[in-house]
Amino acid sequence: MPRSPRIEKRLAAKRSYDSKPIFRRSRTIEAVLGTSCVAALIILEIASQIGLLAGKELIGKAMTVLCGVTLLAVTICILVLCVLTLTGPIYKPQLDFSTGDLETYGPIDKFAALVIASLIIGVAGYVGYHYVAPVG
Q1: In sequence order, which ranges of 1-136 are alpha helices (DSSP H)?
Q2: How far apart are CA 32 and CA 126, in angstroms?
Q3: Is residue 64 included in any domain, yes or no?
Q4: How far is the C-alpha of 22 from the C-alpha of 9, rounded, in Å?
Q5: pLDDT in the model for residue 14
Q6: Is the per-residue pLDDT at 106 higher than 80?
Q7: Cα Rg for the chain, rounded, in angstroms?
Q8: 10 Å Cβ neighbour count for 68?
Q9: At residue 33, does pLDDT exceed 60?
Q10: What residues have CB less than 8 Å from 103, skipping those under 6 apart?
Q11: Which pTM value belongs to this model?
């Protein structure tokens, strides 16, 4: 049984999700965000336990550096995802039936990315100003 042109258009739009750039797909954004946060939590937990149980000052300092680098990497990852969200459309794998095209992140998602990026930059600025004391 042949499909109507309207259904064919919707199916073509749905199939076009895989042709979008990889960092403009919501599944990629969500996977990167989830993986980086879970990996960071695992690394922080293991490093903090090793640092506490080792009993040597050198190992404790090494684990502190590892925790700092992990937090820096996750922070940069989240900032990159926020910039991607704010600079262009992020496509969802579902259709917007009013237009017949793929849904994209809306104004609420972009506002959330702006708030998260602002908080990260604000906290980094605060830490840099108060704890990384300028010489002189």
Answers
A1: 5-15, 26-54, 57-87, 107-130
A2: 27
A3: yes
A4: 22
A5: 75
A6: yes
A7: 22
A8: 11
A9: yes
A10: 91, 92, 94, 95, 96
A11: 0.81
Q: For the chain, report the end-to-end CA distance as a whole number of angstroms.
A: 80
How far is Cα of residue 28 from the mean position of the Cα atoms in its chain?
A: 9
Q: What is the pLDDT of residues 37-48, one digit of tens each?
A: 999 999 989 988
What's the pLDDT score for residue 81? 94
- Going from the C-alpha of 80 to that of each of 24, 84, 95, the distances in angstroms are 12, 6, 26
Q: CB of 29 within 8 A of CB of 90?
A: yes
- 3-class SS of residue 136: coil
Residue 21 has pLDDT above 70, yes or no: yes
Q: 57-87 and 26-54 helices cross at what angle (nearest 10)?
A: 170
Residue numbers of the domain that contains 34: 23-132
Instruction: Give the whole-angstrom CA distance, residue 84 versus residue 37.
Output: 18
